[in-house]
UniProtKB/TrEMBL annotation:
<keyword id="KW-0472">Membrane</keyword>
<feature type="transmembrane region" description="Helical">
    <location>
        <begin position="6"/>
        <end position="25"/>
    </location>
</feature>
<dbReference type="InterPro" id="IPR001129">
    <property type="entry name" value="Membr-assoc_MAPEG"/>
</dbReference>
<keyword id="KW-0812">Transmembrane</keyword>
<feature type="transmembrane region" description="Helical">
    <location>
        <begin position="73"/>
        <end position="99"/>
    </location>
</feature>
<dbReference type="InterPro" id="IPR023352">
    <property type="entry name" value="MAPEG-like_dom_sf"/>
</dbReference>
<dbReference type="Pfam" id="PF01124">
    <property type="entry name" value="MAPEG"/>
</dbReference>
<protein>
    <submittedName>
        <fullName>MAPEG family protein</fullName>
    </submittedName>
</protein>
<dbReference type="GO" id="GO:0016020">
    <property type="term" value="C:membrane"/>
</dbReference>
<keyword id="KW-1133">Transmembrane helix</keyword>
<feature type="transmembrane region" description="Helical">
    <location>
        <begin position="119"/>
        <end position="141"/>
    </location>
</feature>
Length: 142
């Protein structure tokens, strides 16, 4: 039998790929409209396109970067729980809550990008992640 916590891991990985595809589908047309010829561009600095492209075209890129940051702690702690044999029950539910908050956060960021809503979702996802990390620590240090 596999650990239930592997399911939300796979869902968040899949969601990250959905956001990658959305980022590409949004940014490439915006870059073309801005007159950026990718065959003539070499090197760039993070955030450089923020000054060139419309904000709404950049929001998916910002969200994709966010999905590369804090979720790394989610993946590590979820895998610890799975390997420790305690990735079912409450730990799986905490992981699902984290994934749900991150998906809703993504949707808000790439549509309205309302900071007040994003902040609440970030705090809620962070609290679930803290709970997950604590449970992982208990599992390996108990």
């Amino acid at each position: 039998m596999h650990s239930e916590i592997l399911q939300p891991i796979v869902v968040l990985v899949g969601w990250t790929m959905v956001m990658w595809a959305y980022m590409v589908a949004t940014r490439l047309p915006a870059m073309k409209a801005a007159g950026i010829d990718l065959s003539k561009v070499s090197g760039s600095k993070p955030g450089q396109l923020d000054a060139i492209l419309p904000p709404k075209a950049q929001w998916p890129a910002h969200n994709y970067m966010h999905l590369m940051e804090q979720p790394t702690v989610f993946y590590a702690s979820a895998l610890v729980l799975a390997v420790a044999g305690v990735g079912n029950g409450i730990n799986a539910w905490i992981a699902w809550a984290y994934v749900a908050f991150r998906i809703v956060h993504s949707i808000v960021q790439v549509t309205s990008n309302k900071i007040s809503i994003r902040f609440v979702l970030f705090v809620l996802s962070s609290l679930t992640l803290i709970a997950q990390v604590l449970h992982a620590a208990i599992a390996v240090f108990h």
